[in-house]
Specification:
It is a single chain. By secondary structure, this protein is mainly alpha-helical. The protein has helices at residues 14-18, 23-41, 46-50, 57-75, 129-141, 173-188, 195-216, 224-252, 258-281, 291-294, 300-310, 313-322, 327-339, 342-354, and strands at residues 43-45, 87-89, 97-103, 113-115, 119-121, 124-126, 145-151, 164-165. The strands form three sheets. A three-stranded mixed beta sheet has the order 1-2-8. The protein has a three-stranded antiparallel beta sheet with strand order 6-3-7. Helix 7 packs across helix 12.
């Protein structure tokens, strides 16, 4: 299944680390700097790989497909035309970064990390799993619920020419192409201090961009019916998680003692497990692709990425329709939306979400 943490932690410019004081903060920035340097030094030209008959044929074929999708991103989707995703990097590991999410025991509010350039994010990213696990352990000791998730894809918001990474290559072609569009969307528009806005915007561009691409291009090996089923399952899974989030939000607003709150919270998670099994064994006909996610203990932090990455996708779909499905007009409208004061932006997004879908 696709990681729902697809945007990854945002590395800051190396000079930022050199201006910091305090061992803990400086140590965190230096690991970002080291990881970014490793990533940059691992890059090589995709065109060079595709043109080299000595390289792995399957890799050459898939990167060749991505070259076509990269051109489509700029020419049709009006995404940035730069050096990003014209390069490839093999990091010799399964994930490029690991994100740490944290929440209080009786809240779905993220413990945010704030940075000079990227603003405040609902997670903290690490280039090493050990670093992420150490941060998670620290937050647990402080009483927070935590989730550590490996992230295959990554964006620096245009600070560097981001490469396609080996960590992305285990996905299907359709998924890989969509992720390319997602990450470029972050370069097109990014609003400081609003993770849900940024990720929902990029997720919409990913989904609609992929639909446009598959409608206009014959991509060998992509089973469109299978992709549609995958998208439907993913949407139903996310809807299940978001419904559980709403149940928990209502629960946490109640004036209950801690023990009673814990019991009621566990009942909500038990209900989630039961509803998932019914969906898996009924509507999905026994499809078990999400079993791994449910095999780990559930907590608030594990639910957090879903609200952040999917919350406003319907709103951006409505905005796209309002702009007559014109990508340039859509980006301009999205930028105006992003420039609103947070409360005005929230109200506008809620209004757009309430519009009937096409």
């Amino acid at each position: 299944m696709r990681s729902f943490l697809v945007a990854g932690g945002l590395a800051l410019h190396l000079m930022v680390a050199m201006t910091l004081t305090g061992c803990t903060t400086a140590g965190y920035y230096w690991q970002l700097a080291r990881g970014q340097v490793q990533l940059l030094s691992s890059r090589e030209s995709i065109a060079g790989i595709v043109g080299d008959s000595r390289r792995d044929p399957k890799l050459r074929e898939r990167l060749g497909q991505l070259q076509q999708a990269r051109r489509f991103a700029s020419e049709h989707l009006q995404l940035p035309d730069n050096g990003s995703y014209t390069l490839y990097a093999d990091l010799k590991r399964d994930y490029v970064v690991w994100n740490v999410f944290a929440t209080p025991e009786f809240s779905l509010a993220a413990v945010e990390s704030c940075f000079p350039i990227a603003g405040c994010l609902a997670y903290r990213g690490y280039f090493s799993q050990a670093g992420a696990e150490a941060q998670a352990a620290k937050l647990k000791r402080e009483g927070y619920e935590v989730e550590v998730g490996g992230v295959p894809a990554y964006s620096t918001l245009g600070w560097f020419d981001d490469p396609v990474i080996n960590t992305m290559m285990r996905w299907s072609d359709a998924h890989l192409i969509g992720t390319l569009f997602h990450e470029l969307a972050h370069q097109r528009l990014y609003v400081k201090n609003d993770t849900a806005f940024n990720e929902s915007f990029a997720s919409f561009v990913e989904q609609q961009g992929r639909r446009d691409y598959l409608a206009l291009n014959d991509v060998p090996g992509i089973d469109e019916a299978a992709e549609l089923r995958r998208e439907q399952r993913n949407r139903q899974f996310v809807e299940l998680i978001l419904a559980t989030r709403e149940q928990l939000q209502a629960l946490y607003a109640q004036p209950l003692e801690a023990d009673a709150m814990r019991q009621a919270k566990q009942a909500v998670f038990d209900d989630l497990q039961a509803r998932y099994r019914a969906l898996r064994d009924g509507t999905w006909g026994g499809y078990t692709g999400y079993d791994d996610w449910f095999s780990e203990p559930l907590n608030n932090a594990r639910l957090l990425p879903f609200g952040l990455y999917d919350q406003w996708v319907p709103a951006f779909a409505a905005l796209w329709r309002e702009q007559n499905r014109d990508w340039v007009a859509f980006y301009e409208a999205a930028a105006r939306l992003g420039a609103l004061a947070p409360n005005e932006r929230q109200a506008r997004l809620e209004a757009l979400s309430a519009e009937p879908s096409a």
